[in-house]
Design a protein that fits this description.
- By secondary structure, the chain is an all-alpha fold.
- The protein contains 4 helices and no strands.
- Helix 1 runs antiparallel to helix 4.
- The relative contact order is 0.25.
């Protein structure tokens, strides 16, 4: 079963619940980019949007913005 936008969005919310740390979450996201069950190029781009937060404050999303991003991913998946 492929890794979906809904899966990634739900996983982001879990990671935020574990403590909002942009570097930790960015590194976690980058690990997901290499999942063998990830083939959706649009989702890969979304994952990189989170992974790039590690590159500096200009790329960071606030906790609220990241939650909204995750909820949009969940809503966008018609499953």
């Amino acid at each position: 079963m492929p890794y979906t936008s809904r899966d990634f969005g739900a996983d982001i919310l879990v990671e935020i619940d574990n403590g909002y740390d942009t570097v930790r979450i960015a590194r976690w996201a980058f690990q997901n980019y290499h999942r063998p069950d990830l083939s959706n190029e649009d989702l890969k781009d979304k994952i990189l949007q989170v992974a790039v937060m590690e590159e500096g404050p200009e790329f960071e999303l606030s906790e609220d913005a990241l939650k909204q991003f995750a909820l949009q991913l969940i809503r966008s998946d018609p499953r």
